[in-house]
Automatic annotation (TrEMBL):
DNA-binding region: 29-48
Pfam families reported in the protein's UniProt record: TetR_C_17, TetR_N
Cross-referenced PANTHER family: HTH-TYPE TRANSCRIPTIONAL REGULATOR YJDC, TRANSCRIPTIONAL REGULATORY PROTEIN
Gene3D superfamilies with a match to the protein in the record: Homeodomain-like (1.10.10.60), Tetracycline Repressor, domain 2 (1.10.357.10)
Any one GO MF annotation of this record: DNA binding
Full protein name: Transcriptional regulator, TetR family
InterPro entries xrefs: Homeodomain-like_sf, HTH_TetR, Tet_transcr_reg_TetR-rel_C_sf, YfiR_C
Source organism of this protein record: Enterocloster lavalensis
Keywords for this protein: DNA-binding, Transcription, Transcription regulation
Record-annotated HTH tetR-type domain positions: 6-66
Signal peptide: none
Amino acid sequence: MGKKGEETKRLIREKAISLFAQKGFKNVTMKDICCETGLSRGGLYRHYDSTRQIFSEIVNELMSAQDNELSEKMNQGRPAPQILEEILDRYCREMSDRYTSLSAAIFEFYSEQQQDSSNHMLLKQYAASVDMWRTFISYGAERGEFKNVDAAEIIDVILFSYQGVRMFSAIMPLDEQIPRRIISHVKKALLP
């Protein structure tokens, strides 16, 4: 696929993200995406076969971006507390933003996928997140910038709190202090 085709696919994914955040996974149709992008049905189907394919690429892209961001910052030798602050600031903003959360759509997408036992994409993504955070926590501890902690415990708090708040914020207004308290707890647990 040429540069123009890749650019069109990027545009499709970009526009589809807002639709999935607003409507969930199950309620977005290819027709909705055509309307949002201005593409004809044929133009859209030239790039994607289904909303499932589009959503899957979006989720994979988001996961890769986070993994790459952390790896890049560690490879640059940046201080672990600075990296942590940047990540947790973004998490706090995302937990507070109920209008762009894909959590409900992710839940719908993967709960439907559980019927197909050959598809373990969510578990793979969860395992990748755990590995990424474990590597980062080790990085900070080895540099003496993080406390020696039970990494699995902190990772559970980070991942499940983040996703839980994102899920709930998508369906009801939440006290804006909730994300701040979670972030504060993570910082207290990791920083000396």
